[in-house]
Amino acid sequence: xxxxxxxTDANGSTKQPSAERSASTGSFANRPSVDxxxxxxxxxxxxxxxxxxxxxxxxxxxxxxxxAIMAVGLVVGLVFFARPSTSELENRTLxxxxxxxxxxxxxxxxxxxxxxWYADTYPLxxxxxxxxxxxxxxxxxxxxxxxxxxxRQSDELPAxxxxxxxxxxxxxxxxxxxxxxxxxGLVQGGVAKRDKNAPVPDMQQASANxxxxxxxxxxxTDNACYTLYYFSQDACEEYCGVVNQAADLLDGIATVYxxxxxxxxxxxxxxxxxxxxxxxxxxQAIDYxxxxxxxxxxxxxxxxxxxxxxxxxxxFRTDHHWTQLGAYYVFENFCxxxxxxxxxxxxxxxxxxxxxxxxxxTEIGVAGMANHADSVVARIPSxxxxxxxxxxxxVDGSEIQGNVITDLADADPSALYQTxxxxxxxxxxxxxxxxxxxxSCLIIKDSFGNPFTSVTVDSYxxxxxxxxxxxSQDLVSFVKKHNIxxxxxxxxxxxxxxYDAAALVGTIVDGSNRSVAGDGPTLPTSVQTDAxxxxxxxxxxxxxxxxNAGDGASQQEQTGAHDATT
Amino acid sequence: xxxSSLVFLFVFLAAHLAIYHLVDPKYRNLVLLxxxxxxYSWGGPRYLVxxxxxxxxxxxxxxxxxxSEDSLRKRxxxxxxxxxxxxxxxxxxxxxxxxxxxQAIFGVPEFIPEIVLPIGISFYTFQLISYVVDVYRDKVSxxxxxxxxxxxxxxxxxxxxxxxxxxxxxxxxxxxxHPTRNDIYYGVRRxxxxxxxxxxxxxxxxxxxxTLLPVGTGGVxxxxxxxxWLGMAFYMLQIYLDFSAYSDMAIGMGRMVGFxxxxxxNYPYMAHSVQEFWRRWHMSLSSxxxxxxxxxxxxxxxEPILIVRNLFITWFxxxxxxxxxWNYICWGLYFxxxxxxxxxxxxxxxxHALGHVYAIVVVYIGWILFHxxxxxxxxxxxxxxxxxxxxxxxxxxxxxxFLQNIFLLVFCIVACTNLGKRIHRxxxxxxxxxxxxxxxxxxxxxxxxPLLLLLAVVALAGASYNPFxxxxx
Lengths: 566, 473
Hints:
Radius of gyration of chain B: 23 Å
Largest interface: A-B, 62 and 74 residues
Radius of gyration of chain A: 34 Å
Number of strands of chain A: 15
Largest sheet of chain B: none
Structural class of chain B: mainly alpha
Oligomer: heterodimer
């Protein structure tokens, strides 16, 4: 140890700075200077030298460790092929590498997007995100009862059927009331006309706004979260106007049903508690919405069937969605309204996917929720488990084959809700091989519609779905082209009661601003064994698919094979 | 490029440091210069022309001052410099603001063009002005080499977000730098402390502050009293931790390669008066205004009425430097009022402890003026913190956020004090006496920088949220 110190020579005596050297040169017999040497060597060689060396070594370690971390980070970041393009945890596609344009380059926008791409798709990001969520739980104490995303206020719920003008005119006189209503262009029934000249909602922005509804106004207790509902009179008027318009346009062509679903808070929390938290009563809100719809719309009672069964597993604790069981109870009610037999749901083959940690866990990130994961129980319709779906529903031949209930036993815990109808896709189509009566329905849905769609499969020959956020279809032409009998407009109330949802559904209904090329994609013919006997819808479908006519025979064989194995 | 981002850390800085240490030492300044220009271009290559142009003008004017014999020429050069640089700053930063005010009073012009603010212009403009004025005052000699001057003005350590480095601080180190092992260690350590402070503490405080007081959404108007208190408390922590972290990183990166920038913050929330606060907060800015505005106006060596005038002008400009909006000017004048109060009324009569409470309260209210550009929101929050907003005293949401972030809150408050520094120094000395302390202390020296670096990286990966308040400056 001693001889390593550069200031000592091999004998341990010090090399002194020149000033001192001149003082201590002299005979070795000069004891004091040797003692001084000894003292000096003790200082530079003893504990304090040891101290300096230790500190110096440790500090050197720190610098090298940091350099190593930077080097690893650099190398990992360069491994381009390992970059993910989607995040299962966050259920979104990650930022793609930006396109280069001279303009963007000069303003720096290109580089900003590159920074975002780099961070978003960094190969080790997901484990780091998990880790950072755990670190965040160290910031404080998680109270048993919590509230997120406040600052929202609910409009007062008017009485059922009361129109907007008379509700707001309580302060104004009756005369002003009537002039107000003409100025707003209210049509009969007090439903406001939609402003067709309003700018097209930016789809991405509207979707993002809707997503944010999930976590603005969330009450948490016992590691289960509940999204509250805040009523907005004007937004609801907009939505009802859109549904009414759909019914008008499809008058005599198809029946329009409205299914508005309460959130978990609406059904599972006490009405008093919701009131205390400033939220609106969802039963009343749904009743009000239905009352604003015209006679041509068939509203489906959703609150009562769910409330009756509220002791059962109707909603998830870690996710804002409902379960397939909840969807079944509402569909059962739908069947009653329509006058058909509900499917024999309980006899269907059941699959359970455990460990589901949904949107609340991902977006609010309370670590304690991980110990109270949900289970996704999915029953497979007895008629078929096959379906087609389109991500871009304008591209012919781009349909993807999938399952109504996908086996997600090995999937990421946050993705288990995707088991229903392959998640949210612009367009999908399910053909029931056991029916040939031409019965068909189109469900214009949000993500709550996924389990709902899965329980409708046995009841129709054809089930089509539009996701109101992603589809490019035009309602009327699609309905006419495919002879659809029932159009079900389904939305959870937290989405239905927003301008964004009204706008998005509106563009489907009136076909405005949708980049529809022609009549949308050619749907694949999926032909049953009795196709030849079925003159109606089936015949039309195969005529349209001129390109596929020659393939009709081979497809028939394929489908036959399918039936055998299902 | 934001310092607290993965692309800065793992692409730019990693590559830059590797190249810097691998090349022949005589090319090191070139590496720094090229890296800095690249770094600046990341925020928009077309503004690089402005930076290089202003540096060129300053280079010419400074040489003109040094080489000319008569004072008229010198004066022309300094005036030229001020006109060009301040003129450009006024155009890019304040034209919209000035035109807006003109329009509000006179109704014209009808259309106000939107001018994009080049990144860092407030910082590098002041650095260049300080350089030329110092040449004029014979404090430094002019830099004959344009590229070295450009290195000074564009150095990525401090170009974008400060500290405002005076030329005299680095003039020798531009040519000769010999970082010792200690320099390198302390530089790395300082950088990792700053990065962790930013990525973990400041960003988390920002998240809470923005949840409670979401600017520009109307949510500000429905908040409860405790929500206002807590939101502004987190904002107060955020802005200090954020800004001081950036200075930490700049100083750390500088030290790693042998530059010794001056400190920019000295635990401002430990102050016992507003005057002391401003001797501890953003010291490079307040000293700039002191040396280049206040003292040339006469400073405190004139009769009281002129002192008031000098203070007024200085604080008006200080406020305005922070943003082209009236609330920043109000913020500056708010401090002017308290400084006058302390200078002429309170003088030295404030007891120590009470002074600390008073300073914190004054600064806290000041941040409300600073945070909200919209006067309606600002007014709402001011009314809210005294309990008169009418939305209720507390709410479950505030209660939730408070409990969920209580350790963070306490830790951040402690981080605003010099407790950490004192413990570090005490351990340093204790380690000399005691073998066990030596082991503990040296282990902490070894582990702290890489650990903080890793934690910061994890935090950055996990967060999509990374604002820097002073960024568009």
